[in-house]
Amino acid sequence: MTDPRIALISATPLAIAPAAAAIAAQFPEGTVWNLLDDRLLADAQGEGGITAPLAARMDRLIALAIEGGADGVLLTCSQYGARAELRDPVADGVAVLAADGPLFDAAVALGAARVLLVASLDSAAADSSTRLAAALDAAGVATELDTLVVPAAAKPQPEAELTAVLAAAIEAAAPGYDAVVLAQFSLAPAAAALAERFGVPVLDAPTAAASRLAAEIAGRGR
User: Is 179 exposed, middle or buried (CB count within 10 Å of its CB: 0-12, 13-18, 19+)?
Assistant: First the structure.
């Protein structure tokens, strides 16, 4: 299938453009369907985590996407990734991917000795570092994983400014990393420029997720 409908479920508008760009690159003739609940993150922060009502809210958005004919569903918010991982792919009939599941798989496959995980929010850094460490341990990959939080990268800004902010923070961190992992979709626009600047792989979630969706859709013959 060259023209799938891909539903992007987002908790912040900042994640939409990077995700849509990655999907468009993978499926030039495809259709992006955006479903946005811009209170999901704020409400989770206010509640101190993902409560049962918040999880149910995300589940309803996933169900809406599937019932609406999506050929693939991508959650662009890493903190709600567990809702995708709990899905039954046979019952759903389509791939429902967590924001950073494919990203973590790519990091595991890379097998780098030292990895720097970069996020703009403490909550995203804590969640992603815990789950990436678990993925590395499960795969038996001995990787030294460090985390860097860059609050200045959390606000909307042009790609060049985002890249400059992230580059300055990475340069200030301890040198010698073999790879950088950008934990949030909103940071993905800086990936290519950062890879060129530092000369190491810079993995971003939208690119990894779009590639996985293409494989899942091809495998289902949709």
Answer: buried
Nearest to 99 by CA among 218, 209, 221: 209
Q: Return the closest-CA partner of residue 217 out of 111, 84, 70.
A: 70
Q: Are 87 and 97 in contact (CB under 8 A)?
A: no
Give the chain's length.
222
Opening angle at CA 97, ends 27 and 123, nearest 5: 120
Place of tokens 């990936």: 191
C-alpha closest to that of 17 among 58, 76, 102: 76
Q: What percent of the chain has pLDDT over 70?
A: 98
Q: What is the pTM of this model?
A: 0.85
pLDDT of residue 174: 76
Looking up tokens 């899942």 gives: 216
Give all strands (DSSP E) within the chain, no chain letters.
5-10, 31-36, 72-75, 95-97, 114-119, 144-149, 179-182, 202-204
